[in-house]
Amino acid sequence: MDLPVRKKLPHQIPPWVEEGSFFFTTICCREKGRNQLCHDDAGQKVLSTVAYYHEHLKWHCVLFVLMPDHAHGILSFPREPGVAATIKAWKSYQKRFHGIEWQEGFFDHRLRDRFSLEEKLAYVLQNPVRKGLCARPEDWPYVYRPADRPVWLKNW
User: Fold this and answer.
1) Is the model more confident about 130 or about 17?
2) What pTM did the predictor assign?
3) How far is residue 80's CA from residue 104's CA, in Å, rounded to a whole number?
4) All domains of the chain, ordered by start, with CATH?
5) CB 137 within 8 A of CB 67
6) Rounded Cα–Cα distance for residues 10 and 98 (Å)
7) DSSP notation for 25-56
8) Are 11 and 88 within 8 A, CB to CB?
9) What's the pLDDT at 155?
10) Number of other CB atoms surrounding residue 79 within 10 Å
11) Tens of pLDDT along 21-63?
């Protein structure tokens, strides 16, 4: 008996979506439960490439949080090369230079309004607390928040 084949999610930005729209992304390591990302050596290297991508306009990052076996980002992407190509290149760099083993693909969800954006920001910041990794979101060291985020996001 043939098992059903999972459909792949389309990651391209549709033409009707406004340039600069934010996406909630989840990128998982290949081995669930193994800490590949949240130790000093790997964590700071990974976050430095998040900052590099932001500073070189490969994506616009509002928030990026590393968990031991996955990462969450609130990001916007230029239409070209787009979401999939940008994430693929970033993951490829992490594997090649830092030895991070990733699952194939990733999850993304377009945030359609400010309420959705604020809801996901809260979710991402609380993730380490919910998992018992720290007592308060501000105690978690594996976070990238650029200084140039919009004024209305400064509290995040």
Assistant:
1) 130
2) 0.87
3) 21
4) 23-153 (3.30.70.1290)
5) no
6) 28
7) EEEEBSSTT--SSSSHHHHHHHHHHHHHHHHT
8) no
9) 56
10) 13
11) 899 999 999 999 999 999 978 999 999 999 999 999 999 999 9
Look-up: residue for tokens 């590393």?
A: 66
- Burial pattern 90-128, b for ≥16 Cβ within 10 A else e, equals bbeebeeeeebebeebbebeebeeeeebeebbeebbebb
- Contacts of 150 by beta carbon, 8 Å cutoff, 6+ apart: none
Tokens of 57: 């306009």
**In whole angstroms, what is the distance from residue 98 CA to residue 52 CA?**
15
The residue assigned the tokens 């309420």 is 115
The helix (run of H) or strand (run of E) holding residue 107 is strand 107-110
Q: Which long-range contacts (CB under 8 A, 24 or more apart) does 116-120 make?
A: 117/22, 117/62, 117/74, 118/156, 120/24, 120/74
At 102, give phi and psi (nearest 5°): -105, 150
- Condensed to tens digits (0 to 9), the pLDDT of residues 62-73 reads 999 999 999 999
Separation of alpha carbons 67 and 3, rounded Å:
32
Give the residue carrying structure tokens 């043939």.
2
